[in-house]
Design a protein that fits this description.
By secondary structure, the protein is of the alpha/beta class. 34% of the residues lie in helices and 19% in strands. The protein contains five helices and five strands, in the order βββαβαβααα. It has helices at 63-77, 94-102, 119-133, 141-157, 169-176, and strands at 23-32, 38-46, 51-58, 82-85, 106-109. A five-stranded mixed beta sheet has the order 3-2-1-4-5, sandwiched between helices. Strand 2 and strand 3 form a beta hairpin. The chain starts with 22 loop residues before the first strand and ends in a 10-residue tail after the last helix. The model has no long low-confidence stretch (mean pLDDT 87).
């Protein structure tokens, strides 16, 4: 059996972006229900204004499901120019590469073992872990989904972000990209 070859890793340094949809950061997290059963979350954040675009929750999140979530976001928002991600098996799949090519999306993979190269999503993940995943004892997946949906709304619309000049992600987008203020979150 031949070695599996990873795509080249030449990530660009994080930069201050000029508009939404230039780069989305994506990542997975895991949590547990009260029964001890593990679940996963797939998180999507727009690097421009740190807006949470989606948190998908389930026991299993294969590539096709990830693509479905990204297509759902794109229905109201359009596709990003690029996506920054780690080297998870769902993300390095040919299914994902084909989908990205069809939508003219550059996939930017961070170097293995260098999570700081994707620090926007890592910072978000820490907040989500502290305020949701570690805060509640979940009875079922629907409860995780409901609490996450409510938290996303609060995070995007009510919580000032220090890095955005103490504006919420929505306020920042409306102030700096008023032509794109109609986009909602999922």
């Amino acid at each position: 059996k031949g070695k599996k070859r990873l795509p080249n890793r030449y990530p660009q340094p994080l930069s201050v972006l000029e508009s939404i949809n230039l780069c989305w950061s994506i990542d997975f997290m895991s949590g547990a229900l009260m029964t001890g059963r593990r679940f996963r979350t797939f998180n999507v954040v727009d690097d421009y204004n740190r807006e949470v675009l989606a948190i998908e929750v389930d026991l299993n999140l294969p590539s096709q499901r990830i693509i479905s979530v990204l297509d759902q976001i794109a229905l109201t928002r359009g596709y990003p120019a690029k996506m920054r991600m780690d080297n998870g098996p769902e993300l390095i799949s040919t299914t994902m590469a084909t989908w990205a090519h069809e939508h003219n999306i550059d996939l930017e993979f961070i170097q293995p073992g260098k999570p700081t190269q994707n620090s926007y999503i890592e910072r978000f993940n820490r907040t989500y872990r502290t305020e949701v995943l570690d805060m509640y004892a979940f009875r079922g997946l629907e409860e995780v989904r409901e609490i996450s949906r409510n938290w996303i709304r609060e995070y995007n619309e009510e919580r000032p972000n220090q890095s955005l000049g103490k504006l919420t992600p929505m306020e920042y987008r409306m102030k700096h990209c008023p032509e794109n203020s109609n986009f909602g979150w999922h």
